[in-house]
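Progress against Task 2.4 (sequence-to-structure conversion) is shown through the following example record, which the project officer requested during the mid-term review.
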Amino acid sequence: MSELKDRLRSDLTDAIRGRDEVATATLRMALAAITTEEVAGSDARELSDDEVLKVLARESKKRREAAEAFGSAGREELAEREQAEGRVLERYLPTQLDDAAVSELVAAAIAETGATGMRQMGAVMRVAQQKAAGQADGKRLSTEVRRQLAG
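Structure tokens generated for the chain above:
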């Protein structure tokens, strides 16, 4: 079993004992998403730590998007709940790169691919996503790639 999955289970037990409702619900949801991913497809398998991180990143993104949607609809209490769940998930994700680091990473990807315009955006994105390795959201990367290729 992956170390990260063990840590999630251990933290879930601690959250239940500490009566932390948000952490309990969030960790249960995360473990359910991991289990769903493990049994998806024709063969059940055990996820590696990297695969577990991808599932957690996907769940974190869902929380951010839901918080934005609830916030724009005037449902502040639900937006706050989603943000709280997102903060619980962020404890398990790698630290996100700041804007300057994303800019440097994209510049390096452009130099590596030799891209000169928007037609090579896909190649630049592939390299940038590999270099970012979960430390930057795809939306942030694509925005920066567009900015640098256009200007």
